[in-house]
Design goal:
Elements: E1 6-17, E2 35-41, E3 46-50, E4 57-59, E5 61-64, E6 69-70, E7 78-82, H1 95-98, E8 100-106, E9 115-122, E10 128-132, E11 143-151, E12 156-162, E13 171-178, H2 179-184, E14 205-208, E15 212-218, E16 222-223, E17 248-260, H3 263-275
Antiparallel strand pairs: 1-17, 2-15, 3-14, 3-17, 4-17, 5-11, 5-16, 6-11, 7-10, 8-9, 8-11, 9-10, 12-13, 12-15
Amino acid sequence: MPATAATPLGSQQIMLSEADFKVPATIHSVAGVLSTAAKYRVPHQGLIRLYANRPYGMYLMASDFPAAYTQLVTPTATYSWTLSGLPAHSTRVNAATEDVVAYAWDSTTTDTAWTPLTVSSIDYGTGSITVDLPVAMQTAGDIIALVAFYLGSQGGVSLGAQAPAGSDEVIREIWGSPIRGLHETDQAAGKTAPLLGAGRRTEAYGIPEGWEVLLRMDSTDTYYWGAPPVAAASGASGAPAIPAPPQYLYLPGEMVRLAVHDSAQLNLLADRHLAS
């Protein structure tokens, strides 16, 4: 990097996680449109270098809001429904409990929190799931609101970098993948673990201060990075906040501290670097 643009002052290794990415104005994916699901802004006097040749991890949970269930005259201990999309089948050790998670809220008893449910059955071919209902929700006539988060399988996902507002705001794509392919890859195995550079690039992706790293999706599934709005759930009027879906993101890199001398030149150099 030319000293006329910025001078490096030191660096440290970091790991960007799902907690570092924030919810943008549009908080969920839109089917058929490559839209921003979450974003990370590089801090002032910083430059993040995302490693191109080291494994990353990413498991993204879509959201499903079935119709509320009214308990039968003879109450049932389980309830089954078909998700709005087909769940991907990951290779994770705890896939049976992590590929689909579910919550319920009993509007009849006005519970103060959503109750985590045991997902006792997942049919990956049809998207049908069965959950176990707690004893407190096994009263005839109870109206039970339900929410499920499942490992998505439809469409694509990408990471891009966007320059600060006021400059050329073109988005430079860093990486992209079909969502199902991403989720069904063994991300823990050395030979199959995904790389941002996909084996074609060894130089890290350098993204300077004020730029944003964008996680973008185009899917028929619906994704929320933060908690979905209560209004999205059927029968949940008056319910407490819905838990946020358990998104997982692991991006290894390095944070370089900079003394910036010429922001315009720095942005131009970063754009050329990311476009190469």
